[in-house]
Amino acid sequence: MSGMPLRAVDFPAVFPGPAPVHCGTHSDAASDLRLLAAIQHGLPLVPRPYAELGRQTGLSEAEVIERLERWLETGIIKRLGVVVRHRKLGYRANAMVVFDVPDAQVGAIGARLAAFACVTLCYRRPRRGEAWPYNLFCMIHGRDRATVETQVEALTLACGLEAIPRAVLFSRRCFKQRGAVYR
Amino acid sequence: MSLTPLQKRLLNDFQRGFPLSPQPFQALADALGVDEAEVLENLRTLSDSQMVSRVGPVFAPQRVGSSTLAALAVPAERLEAVAAWISDLPEVNHNYEREHRYNLWFVLTAADPERLDAVLARIERHTGLAVLSLPLLEDFHIDLGFPLDFGSGPT
């Protein structure tokens, strides 16, 4: 099941704004929101982290675990685990590779690109006229620039994209990196 | 800092499928043949040294709040100042210089589309530059974590 997305309007405590009008019952919404806020920077590194999150959010340990299971099932959480910082681990080369793929093929090509181990993100985004003619984005992380360049060539060939307009935007400086803050 | 075999396994083996049992770090310890305190201590060390961002969830984009990938074409002599101002915005969670005419790329996250638009407008007012805003339309990637290769690297 795809599940209903968590929407900002369902979480007035984290997303202050005009009070949403609820037709149904949303009794879990406030505690969902507290849990979301408590967990977005990670689990506390203590022996019973779910009990600690429950203590912070007014839920039992079992309720915290049950909600995280549900968020994983419905895809609100893509994965739960150790989130590493590539740069600090020696993966200093990072390229955003963008293609201008015919709209009818973007789904098939996106799925193929996303299957490469070196591809850490793969999205369709809008073109913006001549200023930005690309609609398919992927991110590649590697230890050095030469490795990433080889990987870009390999996946371009494997997906038959040699004739497709593309740009490779290597990163220079990282000014800021952290998880999203929802507020 | 050089990594111990235990730290390498902590970094690589638990990027997904983290146990949803009452004592998850004990479960990691059992899998690694060490005790729970050692797992927690090493995860704290890896977090303190910024190799680990967090042990926790990766939320699907656009399922919580509203976000966009944005870019600016900043004149070279203004880049540092503009980048610093952008980084200070609470709505910004990634901010990179990249090799392109559009040389500053950042991710904006806000509670709803209206607030996101307000931040984009504020950036244009402050910088005098047109913002390229490229919200996600479709996500093709299933996030399984990132396999680390410790064989040839400096760590």
Description of the structure:
The complex is a heterodimer of chains A (183) and B (155). With 183 residues, chain A is an alpha+beta fold. Chain A contains 5 helices and 5 strands. Among the domains of chain A are: 26-74; 93-170, Alpha-Beta Plaits (2-Layer Sandwich), CATH 3.30.70.3460. Chain A is elongated, with a radius of gyration of 20 Å. In chain B, strand 3 (92-98) and strand 4 (104-110) form a beta hairpin. Chain B is α+β, with helices and mostly antiparallel strands and 155 residues long. Chain B has helices at residues 5-13, 24-32, 36-48, 79-87, 113-127; strands at residues 52-59, 66-72, 92-98, 104-110, 132-134, 138-139. In chain B, strands 3-4-2-5 form a 4-stranded antiparallel β-sheet. The mean pLDDT of chain B is 91. Helix content of chain B is 35%, strand content 22%. Chain B has 2 domains: 5-49; 66-135, Alpha-Beta Plaits. Chain B is built from 5 helices and 6 strands. The interface between A and B is large, with 81 and 83 residues. Chain A: Its EC number is 4.1.1.111. Chain A: Residues 32-77 form the Siroheme decarboxylase NirL-like HTH domain. Chain A: InterPro entries: AsnC_trans_reg2, HTH-Siroheme_Decarb, NirdL-like_HTH, WH_DNA-bd_sf.
